[in-house]
Amino acid sequence: QAVVALRAGLQVVFIVAHAFVNMEQALSQALPSQAVQVVSRTWARDSHDLFDFEAHQLHTKTFTVQKSMVCVRRDTNVETLSERSSLPLGSDPLLRLEQKDGTFWVDKANSPQSSSKKLWLVVRDMPHGGHRLSENDMIKLGRFKFRVRQLVASANGSAQPELRLFDSGSVCCPDSSQGDLRSAMCRICLLEGPGEDDPLIAPCACKGSIQYVHLGCLRHWIRGRLNLSDASAGSYFYRALPCELCKAIYPTYVAWGGERTPLIEVPQTQPPFIVLENMVRDSRQHASRGLHVVSLADMVLKLGRGHESHVRIADVSISRCHAMIRFHRGQFILEDNNSKFGTLVAMRKPRLLESGSTVSIQMGRTVLSLFVHSDPSAANMQPLLPPAGSTVQDERALRLSLLNRGSSRMEPDDAAGEAVPSEEPGHEAAA
Predict the structure, then answer these.
(1) According to a count of CB atoms within 10 Å of the terminal CB, is the N or C end of the chain lower?
(2) What is the model's pTM?
(3) How many angstroms separate the CA atoms of 337 and 321, rounded?
(4) Are 72 and 87 contacting, i.e. CB atoms less than 8 angstroms apart?
């Protein structure tokens, strides 16, 4: 009886295993087989994690990936390893290609030995030549970074820029017993007591005879420091100011008369507008963080080193007109202007590689261009990258034709818009 039971059990195991094999074969036939063609380009110089898109002496390599792999770089040589392989000595992980359910995904290549660099999407190689911005996107121009803090597309309502930097929107409340401050002196105008509509406030950590200041006096002093009088269409550069005596940062808002208003009287910004936060890279060059509030109601926003740029960035890695942001069909579109060191957007989550489209990802001085073929036999074809000898006008014309052709069937995550430099004068804000 034991032998009979054992034979019956083995037959059941055999039947189940055979069923699993048949199921796996059926799934492999149902799912289209894909292959990813990878073209790696590595700049010979290792400088501030930059890649020179105008360089001619690049180390280029092409290979095909048909299963999950990890791309690593040793010096200037890029190669692929299996996911379970240990990193060779002296190599840096770049990214990981993972095959799931017949499709490929790209993600960071973290390993026990070392973590990979941040993955940056190359804007110039995106569909239609642009990237649709979202709040909290990280933008990198050369070696300078911006964070998209706020996007307001519609004029409906009374939305205005949210001015928050070092705090979470702290509020300064004037002392409710203003009558007890009749003998208190304003440290700016030196007059005693609060005014009828001008309360005395204690905005910083100063004590004693310099503790209080009239709200109107402080606003007048701050307005002169920020130079907001030349703002156009409500565009300006805002930075948090510290007290010159105690060095404490002044609060963002003041609660007075039952309302919360900004401590700094900023102009009303006309929608659509964008708020960009410049991320401090070097405290010796940029003493404080700041917010660029720019209205796109009647212009295309230019970012660059030149004097015609609306947001000027005094950095040698920035081109004169490096990138542009325009408002197109309800979306904010970021486009690269064929800059030397490129315009990048940080990849915040794993990205699906769509068949027939090219995605370029930069990690330090290496750029990997990934092209998915639904037919592995076609993986030897070259990815659809712009010709090396194409001019700026030719590439813009190609982007415009792609935009007109694909605007009717654009997906939610696609970018659109053709970047043409605006000739209208705009607000100039120093970074």
Answers:
(1) N
(2) 0.76
(3) 7
(4) yes
